[in-house]
Amino acid sequence: MDPFGGFVQRRWLWFALPAAVVAVFAFSPDVVAAFGLVPAVAVLVAVGSGGAIWRLRVSARNRAAASEDGFGGWLPLPTDHDHDRRIDFTAETGRLRRVARRAAAFVLVWMALAGAGAGDLVLLDKVADELLATGARTTGEVVSVQTFTRGGMTFEVRFESRTAKIDRDSKNSYTVGERVTVIYDRDDPDRVRTLVEENKSQFLVNLGYVLLVAGSLGTLFAVLAAVGWRGRARAVAATGWRNATVDIVRVFARNSRSLRRPPPEIHVRFREGTGIVLKAMSSTHGANALADFTDRLAWVGGWGRHMVVLFPNGPRRPGPYAVPAFALNLRTEGGGRR
């Protein structure tokens, strides 16, 4: 059903890549053009969009093949035992759709954050270019130079009976006594630059890059979450929920120095004797807080990489708690045991 294996399973990338590229280009076309990235952006959008369309077609074929046998590769046939008066399963399926919409809203938030960072960098460039074009010019003399361990440099220049500190933007080196062309704003003499050094505020430059990087990464992960939850909501709506007993098994990464625990496995045992092993996904609805619990009542819905395990109570508050997961294998007789 999936001839390309794990590569195709990362289908969120085909949606996140063009979305992130288009977002950055939309908010900061000047930055893209300034760095000569227009052809690269066009290629990325074309490849990402083509991959997304292809992946949708693969998903549709896989879904049609899976539904032919009632998703029996992952779930048994429904029975009366799958119902529980304590839980409104229709409402819980709708809750999955709301989670997907909330994740989609976060895509816009992260895109706005990336746009703010890009806009900050564009504005700083425009201000520096405007000063270069309209500022008063004079000759100044470097009176002091300060270098930093990470390669940065600032130098102080004296011109017209006053001094100004300039942050180096280029790779040029400066020495005391060297003469440079100073450009300053007549109405605001504190705005100073040279022909080469734009002398931007390092705080605003760093802030712009932080917002741009954080917003871009956040957009990628939010798109991943939105696409994933939408797929799981559709899958559960198609399959319904099945009553099961589950063991949540902690997974330890071999030879890993990371302090972050990987998501646990969920060993599922259905009432008619079959079982399946699922892998919880990294999410704010994660299962790590439930790890090492055995013989827990739960309901399982979805198929393939779009599965959800619904617990009657969450780890921190009462009420149904949905954990996203994907199947590590197909349902087998006696499967899902530790």
Automatic annotation (TrEMBL):
InterPro entries: DUF3592 (IPR021994). Keywords: Membrane, Transmembrane, Transmembrane helix. The chain crosses the membrane at residues 12-28, 34-54, 103-124, 207-229. Residues 140-193 form the DUF3592 domain. The keyword Transmembrane helix applies. This is DUF3592 domain-containing protein. The lineage of its organism: Bacteria, Bacillati, Actinomycetota, Actinomycetes, Pseudonocardiales.
